[in-house]
């Protein structure tokens, strides 16, 4: 495996530091993003070239193109921060901050009282809910879809998938599933498929959980996805599969040599030939 030269790594590291400074300090900024009392000073060359939404707002003659400012009141500053972190640094922190900013005191108080998905900045890390990272990834995914940032959608889905596979035993696992089913737009099924794929691979354990069963009852579309995943991942047997296996075992046991090359059987299967009671000699590939 080839390794990048040290000089190349050093150059990329320096470039990343420059981009981080531009994001944090706002030097040479020519555009503002406003969100619930927080102002992010950004750069059109970086933001508008990676987002179809921002490009249209600034370049297509809308009010924002004159004011050089975009107001994003439907998202939280934390989500906007993660979006900008990706646009500048190609990554974002699932928890905590990449960009330090000051929030109006009233806004912080309101959100801390009304939502368990937002945690006061000075609260110890250990007291944050286990599902916080998952919720953050969901919000980033939704925002990336809304603002036309496809690579960020892919990254958020990847981070979400990792959380699902690492935190399936979390007491809040069902809350995460409910959040996806209730908040992700109907045209986008990526996160639902992540959940369905996981449940299908752990179907016996998951269906023992009353909370998961309740979710199936509430969101039939998820149950349909799980069934589709069970079939596509070949985790369920076709009705005729059991009898096909029984006949195949009897056929193999009735003869121990290949009728073509006379060697002792070393059996090989191709595709789904076993469903038709067929197997091949591993030595000469003769079908039996």
Helix and strand layout, with pairings?
Layout: H1 6-25, E1 31-35, E2 38-42, H2 44-47, H3 52-59, H4 63-67, E3 69-71, H5 77-89, H6 105-114, H7 132-146, H8 150-166, H9 173-183, H10 190-201, H11 203-206, H12 210-218, H13 220-232, H14 241-253, E4 267-268, E5 280-281
Parallel strand pairs: 1-3
Antiparallel strand pairs: 1-2, 4-5
Helix pairs in contact: 1-5, 5-7, 7-8, 7-9, 8-10, 10-13, 12-13
Short description:
The protein has helices at 6-25, 44-47, 52-59, 63-67, 77-89, 105-114, 132-146, 150-166, 173-183, 190-201, 203-206, 210-218, 220-232, 241-253; strands at residues 31-35, 38-42, 69-71, 267-268, 280-281.
Largest sheet: 3 strands, mixed
**Percent helix:** 40-55%
CATH topology value of the largest domain: Potassium Channel Kv1.1, Chain A
How many separate domains make up the residues? 3
CATH architecture of the largest domain: 2-Layer Sandwich
Low-pLDDT ranges: 105-127
Residue-averaged pLDDT: 82
What is the number of strand segments? Answer: 5
Order of helices and strands: HEEHHHEHHHHHHHHHHEE
**Proportion of strand residues:** 5-15%
Task: Give me the Rg, rounded.
Answer: 27 Å
Report how far apart the termini are. Answer: 43 Å
Domain BTB: 29-88
Organism: Aspergillus transmontanensis
Protein name: BTB/POZ protein
Pfam family, one: BTB
């Amino acid at each position: 495996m080839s390794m990048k030269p040290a000089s190349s790594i050093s150059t990329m590291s320096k470039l990343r530091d420059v981009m981080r400074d531009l994001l944090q300090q706002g030097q040479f900024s020519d555009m503002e993003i406003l969100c619930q009392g927080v102002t992010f000073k950004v750069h059109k060359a970086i933001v508008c070239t990676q987002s179809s939404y921002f490009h249209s707002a600034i370049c297509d003659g809308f009010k924002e193109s004159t004011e050089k400012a975009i107001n994003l009141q439907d998202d939280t500053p934390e989500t906007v921060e993660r979006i900008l972190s990706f646009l500048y640094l190609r990554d974002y922190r699932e928890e905590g901050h990449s960009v330090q900013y000051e929030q109006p005191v009233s806004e912080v108080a309101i959100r801390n009282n009304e939502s368990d998905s937002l945690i006061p900045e000075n609260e110890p890390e250990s007291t944050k809910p286990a599902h916080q990272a998952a919720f953050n990834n969901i919000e980033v995914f939704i925002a990336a879809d809304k603002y036309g940032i496809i690579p960020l959608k892919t990254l958020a889905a990847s981070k979400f998938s990792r959380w699902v596979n690492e935190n399936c035993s979390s007491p809040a696992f069902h809350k995460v599933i409910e959040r996806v089913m209730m908040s992700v737009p109907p045209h986008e099924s990526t996160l639902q498929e992540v959940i369905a794929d996981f449940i299908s691979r752990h179907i016996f354990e998951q269906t023992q959980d009353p909370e998961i069963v309740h979710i199936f009852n509430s969101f039939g579309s998820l149950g349909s996805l799980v069934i589709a995943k069970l079939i596509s991942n070949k985790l369920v047997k076709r009705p005729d599969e059991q009898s096909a296996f029984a006949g195949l075992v009897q056929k193999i046991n009735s003869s121990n040599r290949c009728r073509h090359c006379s060697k002792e059987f070393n059996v090989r299967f191709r595709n789904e030939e076993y469903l038709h009671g067929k197997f091949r000699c591993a030595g000469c590939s003769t079908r039996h």
